[in-house]
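Hi, here's the filled form for the chain we discussed.

Project: internal
Contact: R.S.
Residues: 202
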Amino acid sequence: MSTAGQKPIHANHPQTAVVADLPPRERLVRAASRLFYYEGVRAIGVERLIAEAGVTKATFYRHFASKDDLVVAYLLTKDTYYKSVAEPLAAGYPPGEAIDRIFEAIAEHARERGFRGSPFLNAAAEYPDADHPVRALVATHRDWIRGLFQDLLTRLGHADPESAAGALLMLYDGAMAAGYLDDSTAAHRTLLNAVRLIRSDG
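And the returned structure, exactly as it came back:
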């Protein structure tokens, strides 16, 4: 299926170059987004973030009580962006086609240069405490994905939309991992075949 004209999911969104005239908080979030995604959360200290954003330590702590608060802000920008891609597709197409288009967007995202997997799964791997605010945000994001799929499957008339939505969420996670670790073309084909098999069981 062609995704021409479809809004892409960029691995580095909103990790564009830090712009000097942006407000300090935005510069910090953009610097964090780039560094956390490409190098890992634990590998990046506050001093590095301050230097990359071009702000003072006092400015950093005026906006964020800790680095973990900045991690949450970074993931919130990702959550907002993923929703801006998926929700218009869910609203703008028949449910079966919407599911296919969402996974097409995921597959294209995983083939982008610089793709490093899901920012949410990457962050979760660095925060083992399930009660941590970072993990809570990851869980909220995953609940949104599951709910989106379940709604589409219900509209499609699937016999068991709840279980099928869970299966699609697992495929979503797998697509993020396979896109980083495996051959992207083969992963793309396998993903879309699996999605169609699951959603067609209505």
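Let me know if anything looks off before we file it.
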